[in-house]
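Below: protein 1.
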Amino acid sequence: MTKVIPETPPDYDKTRIVERPDGFYWINAETGKSFGPFATLAGAVQDMDYNAETDFEPAESLQEAEDELGLAGWVDPDTGELAEDTFTHLEDH
């Protein structure tokens, strides 16, 4: 007895890439909207995989970003190394 398995696309398969004479396009299978042309298949895949969601906040200052990453605010003026990478830090008074 053979079991028939229905052919349904996986949940993650929501896009298709097609090649046309003017380049590669990727198509959103849910909306039917196409994006392109791209000169290479890799370019189409890269654009398709791009995720615009990020934790970056445009109003975030450099100091806030460094604090979030755990970086010290001091940079050695002679070597350009961060405080974490140097052995001593003596402030000039």
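Below: protein 2.
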Amino acid sequence: MDVVDSGDGATDTGVDTASPIDPACIPLRPTVGSGTGPSADQCAGFRAPEMGTGAPWCSLGADVPGLRAPTGFCIRRFATLGLPRVMAFAPNGDLFVASPSAPTAAGDSGGMGAIVVLSDDNRDGTAEMHTFASGLDTVHGIAFSGGFVYFTTTDAVMRSPYTMGQRAEMAGSRQTVAGGPMTTLGSTFARGGRWTHGLAASVNGRILATRGEYSSCAIGPDGRPAPGIGEVYEVSMGALNRVASGFRNPMYARCHPCRDLCIAAELGEDQTTGAVESLVAITNNNWFGYPCCYQSTTGPRASTGLCRCIDNQQVKINLGDTPFGFDWERGAWPAPFRNGVFVALHGSFYLPNYAGAGIVYLPTDPATGLPQPGTPTRFIEATNGSAQPSLLRPSDVLFSRDGRMFFSDDKGRGIYWVAPTDWRM
């Protein structure tokens, strides 16, 4: 994994700071909505989790057989749940989980078609389960903002009012914020979109929604490469305003807990020689060039023609490792993990099945929160090769306000938490 150099001798960060845009690139760049909101950086007043004075978290239960974390950490199973895809913590600390019942692109199924709330009122380290909202076969993204819980379905961003500690949706309160439908928005040459949309809420109140596609490189009737319909939108009531375009499938997105920084995990085109997957900073007017142009292990697929227009990606991940959900550690864990970005790698869809799956982390730039270049370090290994695998395909990572890291395994129907062995309640 490394940061790309566009050829100007300077290291690119993934943030669109290029001086005048080549006129030939302008038609490919998205129209940006006006409701971007003010910039915000709240890290000066951000309080990292602190160790409690109660019993050690790791004194609860026993490690999950087969799972391996670095020395000094324990792993506990928090809940068993069908197809847990995306997680979000409510303001009171309850864990909301999207459990869709529709089959995924990889053919996985068995979810509840619901948003599930996992609480731990008795502080025993395992969850009590509640159904917040049902009848949602394609629920995927979840985010909290402004007294609402937002979520996605195939063709819409929806929301329901949320009050502190609420564990069931109020009847008749659900609203459609914006539709489209999201499966056909975007390029004139749209060839079919995915239902697995992501959501992210930023510190300045922005709600971002993502969409991905299935198509490969195609040429439009004007002879130009047809821009991909993988895009990122800013959500406002009744509208989705494009912020970034030219993705294949930015299925997961998350915003920094205290900086005005949002990142998407872009999934590369399967089995394409030299292509990569990546984490990219979402900034207005980004165009990432898919499907006809993409970053590779050696740089852009082409440096001439329209491919010279593509924006550089922040970090690159091996094709097939499949980065899904990710989150920032909040500054409480010991070095070298402090403030790192932890990523759930879903692993390969192809043989050998789930190769590359696990949890990895990268250090971040303390001034920006952006992942630093370098090879990601394995934190938790998947156990697909064992006789009784415990972890199959990690799908999301999320840090709680008490400092534990939670992660989900959609194929393995599990949600787990990790804590340093000396961490107290």
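Residues 1-20, 186-191 have pLDDT under 50 and may be disordered.
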